[in-house]
């Protein structure tokens, strides 16, 4: 998972288009939610699942807003 975050960061900073950067940003968010879920599994504290859900919802909302902005309909 850390390797995928590093590769997504590389794609984010070296992408040619803005759409590629948005996709790399979304990949980083998905992997981060997965890492929070793994931390929940290993620590045994279920409160982190709530944190992962809220983070996932906010990142989804952010990507939708950016996509609407890129379509010039926002």
Helix-strand layout with pairing:
Blueprint: H1 2-13, H2 18-43, H3 47-70
What do these coordinates show?
There is one protein chain. By secondary structure, the chain is mainly α. The protein has one domain (2-70). The chain is 84% helix and 0% strand. The protein has three helices and no strands. The protein has helices at residues 2-13, 18-43, 47-70. Helix 1 (2-13) packs antiparallel against helix 2 and helix 2 (18-43) runs antiparallel to helix 3 (47-70). The longest helix is centred in the middle third of the chain and has 26 residues, at 18-43. It is flat, with a radius of gyration of 14 Å.
Give the helices and strands as they follow along the chain: HHH
**Shape type:** flat
What is the multimeric organization of the chains shown?
single chain
Number of DSSP strand runs? 0
